[in-house]
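Appendix B.2, paired examples.
Example (i):
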Amino acid sequence: MVTYNRILMAVPHRYANEETVAHAITVAKTYNASLTLFGVVEEIEKEYENWLTTKLPQDLEKDMVVKQLAALEQQVAKLKADYANVDCAVSKGIPFVEIVKQVKQGGYDLLILDALSHKPGHKRFMGSTTKHVLRKCPCPVLCVRDNSTPRKVVAAVDVFASKPDSKSLNTKVMSHAYALAQRENAELHVVYAQQPIGEPMLSAWGIGSASMLDGMEADLMASAQSMLLKLTEDVCGSADGVILKALLGNPRDVLPLYVEDNQIDVMTMGTVCRTGIKGFLIGNTAESILSEVTCSVLALKPDGFESTVE
């Protein structure tokens, strides 16, 4: 059963999107969880110090912290009229470091990032802070791109995962996607993308028949479809009403295309890392997919993931 007890929402210093805050309140209410609005004031870089004529950098940073905290406290005071279990905090430093530190120190089990584009022409949301947080944050991270009620949710899984931590990550991805779909009465899609075998690989194996290639890929896709069904039944109890899709193609290409073609609102996926390897980075494939999709994303780590941020 998926549940959240403590939720942290990272609030950008200049863009506290009220709709995303309202979205976070809705999630907190659903799980009767506490919600903390968290702001980070960045340290003033050395090259800018010569331009400061009225205040020392440390004094200016202190003023910025005070103003940020006052703004968040004012917002919290308004929110408490609707939901009492909300507070705020502000830190100073590198945003992604402070966010992850706050998650770890506060025992938060969900982080919400406002990933809406605030600048004209900026379609993608994989900025530096978001990318680093996704790599380092030990708890689930919900990157919000659209605050409307989700109607379609996709779970991106790896049905041929053989290692125990990878299998458990599949279950976690499915569980979170199913819980979200149930909560919002949304359509659930379960998708797996199979990298094509490719003729060079067949040649290396001593196999050169194009018809044999087609047959092998057809068998792989049939097996993947069967495993999608089993995973769905194991987690959801039944696959009734769930759309199962095995895609043939490079995951970096076919998953974003599937999201776009099917108007997916939220994609739930695991990040590729191994239990017990401290700070193992998000996999290149996962990062490429996240940089291309236009929907909201719920990104999950395997159990046992350790962040290098102390």
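Example (ii):
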Amino acid sequence: PVDFSFGFDLPQNARIFLFLGSGWERKGLKTTIHFIAELSRNDPSFRDKGRLLVVGDGDSRPYLQEAARLGVAEKLIFPGVVSDPSNFCRISELMVLPTSYDPFSNATLEALACGCPVLTSVANGAAEVIDHGRTGLVIDNSQEEDPSVWAEKFLETRFDLRESIAESVAGMTREAELNRYEELLNE
């Protein structure tokens, strides 16, 4: 069961997006806010009911200023650091992590394991476990592709059912990883 007592209010039938992690500049929070602004411009449902939960540690002030400049400051909620992000993943329609570099974001794997599709960049090693268009979207966060293109791709995509998304990473356990390392060492 999902605990919906998060300590902040959400509109009824809210469309919740999740940004999960610390190191917000490197992980692309500013770019995520631009993505949220594009969705708000292009999707009436998101304009009315959309929210971005920013879970993690950081200084929210510059991001709230950028969101205010783009007219979406009321869409951002900063719950702070949480010990177990799984409930946030379970209530979110999409996790957004357009990182400029991440060897392998555990947050990406956590979201997928909860059945939450992920939009992330090619600079995230965890992009390798995403089936583009089915369990998430892998974007090129270079100058050629901007958040308006991501918003368009997101609006055109119908992801797999949450159960299928979770199943796509179910075999990625610590035990399976250790077994694979042992196999490699034995070779």
